Amino acid sequence: AQTVTQSQPEMSVQEAETVTLSCTYDTSESDYYLFWYKQPPSRQMILVIRQEAYKQQNATENRFSVNFQKAAKSFSLKISDSQLGDAAMYFCAYRKRGNKLVFGAGTILRVKS
Amino acid sequence: DAGVIQSPRHEVTEMGQEVTLRCKPISGHNSLFWYRQTMMRGLELLIYFNNNVPIDDSGMPEDRFSAKMPNASFSTLKIQPSEPRDSAVYFCASSPSLPDTQYFGPGTRLTVL
Questions:
Q1: What are B20-53's pLDDT values in tens digits?
Q2: CB within 8 A of A3, min separation 6: which ones?
Q3: d(Cα A31, Cα A37) in Å, to the nearest integer?
Q4: How do strand B108-112 and strand B10-13 relate by DSSP bridges?
């Protein structure tokens, strides 16, 4: 079975600083997708970034980037120039091609002004 | 563009009552997913459909839960009879096809007294 582990229940970052959220996963597959979703207090699940396992290049979306280490089964999210609006719960998720999403337990990110 | 629409946003009911949650996926999306989020179990996939056909309902907790997708623009999740342990936030998500990114609705917060 595929599992996703987020070892940091909570993280804090100063506004304008950089923070990295950790995620590891367990799979025997070679073709899969990884995602980071953000859930602000409104409860909406918002896609932050996605990575295809067959791509060696790390995905980036503006201030958000990932460090994808396939051999280590690690998929961390880096948020640069943190903003107050980045405060939320962040979920790492794994999906085998065509199959269902498996989510980690989430990391609460607090942004200090 | 309209995102995934869920109704109601909040539902409070008494134990034993029937509850129906509704979802309208993004137009043109062929896959639809129902998730449940609780503090204890995190985000869990309940069931998903592809082209209106249920593909995997192994996450449905018990026979009290049922889901239908009568057409490409509408799905329901029904709980009958409801129990206090069903209290959770229920999310609907859709994607253009099974391997693609899932886009989530705002969720329905269900409270069963």
A1: 999 999 999 999 999 999 988 889 999 999 999 9
A2: A25, A26, A102
A3: 20
A4: parallel
Distance separating alpha carbons of residues B63 and B79, to the nearest angstrom: 9
Nearest to B99 among A42, A98, A105 (CB): A98
Pick from A45, A50, A99: which is nearest to B104 by CB?
A: A45
Rounded to the nearest angstrom, the minimum Cα separation between A42 and chain B is 8
> Residue A99 has what pLDDT?
65
pLDDT below 50 — which residues of chain A?
Answer: none
Q: Does B56 touch chain A (CB under 8 A)?
A: yes
Determine the residue type at B44: E
Q: What is the pLDDT of residue B61?
A: 87
Instruction: Answer yes or no: are the C-beta atoms of A61 and A48 closer than 8 Å.
Output: yes
Cα separation, A100 vs A105, in Å, equals 16
In which element (H, E) is residue B18 found? none
- In the 8-state DSSP scheme, what is residue A86? G
Closest CA of chain B from A98, distance in Å: 5
Which is more confidently placed, A10 or B96? A10
Structure-token pair, residue B48: 């998903």
Tokens of A112: 């200090």
- Residue corresponding to tokens 């600083």: A17
